[in-house]
Amino acid sequence: METATTPPIPLYYQTTPDTPEQWTPILSKSCTFTQEIFTSVMHEMILNPNYNSSWILRADILSDSPAPPLQLEAGILGPMQIPNFTPNRTILRRFIPRNPQRDAAAEQTCTFYEEGQDRHALVVYQSHSETPGGLPYYLPTVRALAFQYSQDGEDSKSVSIYYRLFPDVPLNNRLERTALHLLTRIHKLGNGFTAGYNKRVHHDQIIPRETFQTTYLSLRERHAKRLIGKWVENTDPGKHVFEDILIAAFLIELWKDMGRSLEAGFVDIGCGNGVLVDILIKEGYAGWGFDARRRKTWGVLGSSTEQNLHEMVLIPRLLDGSVDDGIHDGVFPAGTFIISNHADELTPWTPLLAKDSECPFLMIPCCSHDLSGRRHRQAGKGSQYACLVEWVAKLAGDVGWEVEREVLRIPSTRNVGIVGRKIGEGMKVEEILRREGGGSGWSERALSLKAGGNKGH
Fold it and tell me: Among residues 32, 102, 90, which one has the least CA distance to residue 61?
């Protein structure tokens, strides 16, 4: 981005009909995108402030309507009177902080203005706090911000940022850096929209973001400190604990959507450290988990969890049919929800076991293995992970599952969740096994895991 300069065009707001006061000009930068794209960019930034600050979880849109009269209306600050500009849209948003125990929520009125000659556009963010101390740290300590798009000819376009400062908070280095960050973001989005950028990753296809994140914050408050404080593994507790809290939040909201009761039952196959099982059990859900090897964490999660974690391997009845000490045949009571979270070798088996037992499931693929348990890269276009996701989704669809996908909001690049909760006509599991080359060698590999081989989860 070229060096930004001071805005060339003065901007005023009206405190009284006869007393215009000038905003403080901060930065200006020439651009190539149109006014229509500027408006789209500003709408995107209002909806997703979390991309501008890691302290912000999201913004809830409380109202979105044509600009109200110049007065307080339904809790919304009326748009400022700005000479030569007419308000035409007002959005009231509430910031939800990533850490509610540290930061407070805050509300802001965002107003879109149009200019009579259609050569300038303006968007103003108004703080709802009358004092600097009423603003949380993640917001700039200003009464308002203004983003102005100006066009003085086909080749002379620019975006400028202005502040309406508090009397006792002068312009400082942090405010200047904030303005530069916002201006850079506007230009990046504007150039991307001009080039025809289409978002490739779509979150929140199954569970609405607001619902999921509200549950996540509640679970984090109840479980994060406890679990991190008890961590006994040699891995990063923050990553594993927060990831499992996020997955638990998704599952709880998914189960609510499915109308499942607390007693409906779940099983976590390849449960690893057992944290996900622990959170769900402590939230009142009936279920259990197993893995090829016991983890140190199991002994510190408490008896209500530990008694529901078992050291065993899964050898599908379709391959062996025997049940022995430490061996599970992969048959579960109908309706049990199967969780397959980074379950490695069990990943491709998940939709097949679910079909065989008539159980809904969530699988989050990780490492690529075939149905014999061998590491195997699936053919296809894209990355190894993309090919794995496509293959296991096809297995699910082929046996009759109505496949749903969610790019989960977890701190992992292996973050695609595949959900099966409705099933129709499809191929028999035995047909899939024959087509995919069978499961020869699975039993030996599974038993080697029990004997102490490495487990990725």
Answer: 90
Distance between CA atoms of 181 and 293, rounded to whole angstroms? 48
Residues 6+ apart with CB under 8 A from 76: 63, 68, 90, 92, 109
The CATH number that applies at residue 141 is 3.30.530.20
CA distances from 342 to 40, 291, 339, 416, 448 (A): 38, 12, 10, 10, 19
281: its two tokens: 């059990």
Alpha helix ranges (H) inside 259-299? 275-282
- Enter the pTM of the model: 0.77
Asked whether residue 200 is domain-assigned, the answer is: no
Give yes or no: residues 153 and 103 share one domain. yes
Q: Which domain holds residue 114?
A: 12-195
| Any domain includes 377 | yes
The structural domain count of the chain equals: 2
Q: Is residue 352 part of a domain?
A: yes
- Tell me whether strands 106-115 and 85-97 are parallel, antiparallel or unpaired: antiparallel
* Separation between Cα atoms, residue 368 and residue 378, nearest integer Å: 7
Residue at 2 is within a domain: no
Q: Do residues 360 and 338 make contact, with C-beta atoms less than 8 angstroms apart? A: yes
Query: Could you tell me if 280 and 255 are in contact, meaning their C-beta atoms sit under 8 angstroms apart?
Result: no
Per-residue pLDDT of the chain (457 residues; tens, 9 = 90+): 445 666 655 565 555 555 566 789 999 999 999 999 999 999 999 999 999 999 999 999 998 888 655 444 445 566 778 888 889 899 999 999 999 999 999 999 999 998 866 678 999 999 999 899 999 999 999 999 999 999 887 678 999 999 999 999 999 999 999 999 999 999 999 999 888 766 667 788 999 999 999 999 999 999 999 999 999 998 888 889 999 999 999 999 999 999 999 999 999 999 999 999 999 999 999 999 999 999 999 999 999 999 999 999 999 998 875 667 789 999 999 999 999 999 999 999 999 999 999 999 999 999 999 999 998 888 888 899 999 999 999 999 999 999 999 999 998 889 999 999 999 999 999 999 999 988 889 988 888 877 664 444 3
Q: What's the rounded Cα separation, in Å, for the pair 179 and 173?
A: 10
The DSSP line for 389-443 is HHHHHHHHHHTTEEEEEEE--SSSS--EEEEEEEE-S---HHHHHHHTT--TTHH
